[in-house]
Amino acid sequence: MSTRASNRYATPFAERFDLRLPLVQAPMVGATTPALVIAASNAGALGSLGAGAMTPDKLTAEVAEIRAGTSRPFGVNLFVLDEHTPDEATVRRALSAIDPLRAELGLPPGRALERYAHAFRAQLDRLVELRVPVVSFTFGVLDAADVARLKAAGSYVIGSATHVAEGLAWRDAGADAVCAQGAEAGGHRGTFIDAGKNPLVGTMALVPQLADALDIPVLAAGGIMDGRGIAAALALGAQAAQLGTVFLPCAESAIAEDWRRRLLASRDTSTSVTRAITGRYARGIRNTLMDRLEAEPSLVAPYPVQNALTQELRQTAAKADRGDYLSLWSGQGAPLLRGRPERAGAAELVDALDTEWRAAVNALSRIGAIE
Length: 371
Ligand SMILES: Cc1cc2nc3c(=O)[nH]c(=O)nc-3n(C[C@H](O)[C@H](O)[C@H](O)COP(=O)(O)O)c2cc1C
Description:
This protein is of the alpha/beta class. It has a domain at 4-81 and 117-253: TIM Barrel. Helices cover 40% and strands 13% of the residues. It contains 14 helices and eleven strands. It has helices at residues 12-16, 34-42, 56-69, 88-104, 120-130, 144-152, 164-173, 203-213, 227-235, 257-265, 288-294, 305-309, 311-320, 346-369; strands spanning 23-25, 47-50, 74-79, 134-138, 156-161, 177-181, 187-188, 218-221, 240-243, 271-274, 282-285. The strands form two sheets. An eight-stranded parallel sheet has the order 1-9-8-6-5-4-3-2. Helix 3 links the parallel strand 2 (47-50) and strand 3 (74-79). The longest helix is centred in the last third of the chain and has 24 residues, at 346-369. The radius of gyration is 20 Å and the shape is globular. Bound molecules: flavin mononucleotide. Flavin mononucleotide is lined by residues 26-31, 50, 52, 77, 138, 160, 181, 184-187, 221-224, 242-245, 329-331, 333. Flavin mononucleotide (FMN) is lined by residues 26-31, 50, 52, 77, 138, 160, 181, 184-187, 221-224, 242-245, 329-331, 333.
C-alpha cells in the first residue's frame, strides 16, 4: 500500500522509497534482525539490516526472510574491510589483557584465530547478486567500479561519513547518498580518513557542512531519539534521519536483557568512545569490560583483531546476561528512551515517531507565523 497520500512533508529521499516519514531504522550488527527490518519497513520507515558480521550464505538467508515479510524497500549494510593477518606478538599482547576477563566467565585462555573477519569481497559479491533496494557501507569507501556494479544491479548506494572529506570521497566514488554520522551516535565510528585522530564532529555541526558540500542527499545519524530530532535533522539539510539507539529495546531487537536494562537506566554522561573493546573507536555505555581493557591501551590490537579476540567473551556474557562483560553500544541520547512503552514493537515506535515529528514541524511553523 502506498503511504504517499498522507505524506505532506516528503523529501526526495522519502519519496523515492515511498516512506511515510523521512526515517531510516539504522543497521546495527548485534541488534538488527529480519523481524525488526520487516516491521520498520512495513510501518513506512526504511528498515536496514546490519550484515557486516555475516557469511555470504547467512546474508542470503536473512535477505530472503526479509523479502518474505515485506514487499517494501529495505537496506543492507556492510563493513568495508581489508584482509588482516596479525603477527603472533600482537595477538599474545591482546590476550594478556583479555584472558583474565575470560577466566572470570569460566572460559579457558584465548588463542590465535584462523580468521578475524569474514572476507569483505565475498560479502560484496553476494550483495551485488542479491540486488537489494538499498545498500550502505561503513569503515571505508568503495572504489567507483564497485559502486557502479551495485548500481547496475539496481541498488541505491549510501556511504557513511564522519567528516566532510569522507563525504566527498563517497561522492567521488559515485554514491547516491551519504549518511552523516555525528559524534553522538552509538556503535562504531565509521571514520576512514584521519581515523587515528578520532575526529568527533557532532551531528549539529556535521549535517549542514555535508549538506553544503554535497549535491547528493545527506542522511543524519547520531543522537536523534524522537520526532524533535527528526525535524531538527531536516532543518539542518538532511533528507532523512537514521535512528539506531531508539530501536535497540524494540521487541524485535536481538540485544541481551541486561543491555536493555542498562540503556533504560543510563544518563546523558553514561557513554564513552573507546577503542579498547574492538580496536576501532565505538560509543557505548561504560562498564567493567570497557574500564578493564582501557587500563592497558598499549595491549589493544587493531580492528578487526581485537574485535574477534573479545568476541567469545562477549557472546558468553550475552548468554549469561552479564552486562559487565558486554559491548553495550549506545548513543548519547539513550536516556530519552525512558517514557516510551517498554518492549514495544518497531511498528508502534515508527507510528509514534511519525506523530511526533509532524507535531514538531507544526509547532515550528506556528512559531514562524508569529511576526
Ligand atoms: C548497537 C549498534 C550497532 C551498530 N552497528 C552498525 C553497523 O553494523 N553498521 C553501521 O553502519 N552502523 C552501525 N551502527 C551505527 C548506526 O547505524 C547509527 O549510525 C547510529 O546508531 C545512529 O546514532 P544513534 O545510536 O544515536 O541513533 C550501530 C549502532 C549501534 C547502537
